[in-house]
Amino acid sequence: MAENTEETTVPAHKENVGLKLVLELGPLAVFFFANLYGEKLAIWFPALKALGSDIFIATGLFMAATVLSLVVSKLVVGKLPLMPLISGVVVLGFGALSIWLQNDLFVKMKPTIINTLFGVILLGGLFFGRSLLGYVFNSAFQLDDEGWNKLTLRWGLFFLFLAVLNEVLWRGFNWYYMPDDKLANSMWISSKIWVVMPVTFLFTLSQMPLIMKHSVEVEE
User: Fold this and answer.
1) Which of 97, 105, 123, 188 could be a cystine partner for 156, CB 3.0 to 4.6 Å?
2) How many other C-beta atoms lie within 10 A of the C-beta of residue 45?
């Protein structure tokens, strides 16, 4: 793999971690609670009935929350994070298709598409000698080239794992709770919070030894 020293020489920019978490996890929380209380929301806001059943109401609000988080990120942080931006585009596209066709397949396939896309991009970048993860996380920490290469490989494989996990979860719930689509949808959405998020957190935590080992200090 070709080395790229430019990635480790760009100064890091301080970010508000709490705000970043709210902007990235907020839309998911909206999706979860909107699906849980979809019927009540439709009563309180009759216009939401036009979107369809609970999962489509949740999808519409998820799309709105995603756009809002991107706007706030641009206004407050001053930039649009690459990964949330790509995810937002996919969310809007697949969400619109789901509501228009009244088919939740597009909503459930969205995480699979996004994670596969990220995984392929990261691993493809490594194949051509580029540690693309450095451009995503450069504002958070600085690593040497070996560190970025290893971390990019691990995250690329982990994104592909998340894609497979999503397929197993939503297809498994659809099969197990058939023909109760509402319960299957609720279990799948809940799994994003109680399964996918903890797994992602543990994986991220497990990478700290690598990050600490390959961290470099950058002069202002």
Assistant:
1) 123
2) 11
C-alpha distance from residue 153 to each of 18, 53, 130, 132 (Å):
27, 40, 11, 10
Rounded CA separation 173/183 (Å): 8
Helices 82-101 and 105-127: crossing angle in degrees, nearest 10, is 150
The answer to whether the Cα torsion of 166, 170, 176, 182 is positive or negative is: positive
Whether 220 is covered by a domain: the verdict is no
String of DSSP letters for 150-161? HHHHHHHHHHHH
Looking at the structure of the chain, the number of domains it has is: 1
Residue 114's identity, in one-letter code, is I
219 within some domain: no
9 vs 70, more confident = 70
Contacts of 136 (CB under 8 A, 6+ apart): 81, 82, 83
Task: For 140-169, write each residue's pLDDT tens digit.
Answer: 678 888 888 999 999 999 999 999 999 999
* Inside any domain, residue 184: yes
* 63-93 pLDDT per residue, tens: 999 999 999 888 887 777 777 888 889 999 9
Q: Which residues contact 63 (CB under 8 A, 6 or more apart)?
A: 91, 92, 95, 96
Yes or no: say if 66 and 92 are a contact pair by the CB < 8 Å rule.
yes
Q: What is the mean predicted confidence (pLDDT) over 27-51? A: 89
Q: Determine the Cα–Cα distance for residues 72 and 77; give it in Å rounded to an integer.
A: 8
